[in-house]
Design a protein that fits this description.
With 74 residues, the chain is mostly loops. It is built from one helix and two strands, in the order E-E-H. A hairpin with a 2-residue loop joins strand 1 and strand 2.
């Protein structure tokens, strides 16, 4: 079963923050998530961004909000 671990990539080296349990050997795929760039402009949805037959309503934005889920971290 795949296991998701957190880690860091610096100067060509990947360091895991935790050791996987129950896995001796395995293949690895790495997805790099760039650090947040404070100079980049925020990207936000706004009312009317997607025009069509129906305009966006406040309820649409509430449905799309992330409220977290127990066991998934931040």
């Amino acid at each position: 079963m795949p296991t998701l671990l957190q880690g860091e990539y610096r100067e060509g080296v990947v360091t895991l923050r935790e050791r996987p349990t129950g896995i001796v050997d395995g293949r690895v795929r790495v997805l790099l998530l760039p650090e947040h760039d404070p100079t980049s402009a925020p990207r936000m949805l706004r009312f009317g961004k997607y025009r069509g037959e129906r305009m966006s309503k406040l309820e649409d934005f509430r449905e799309a909000e992330w409220h977290g889920r127990e066991g998934l971290g931040d």
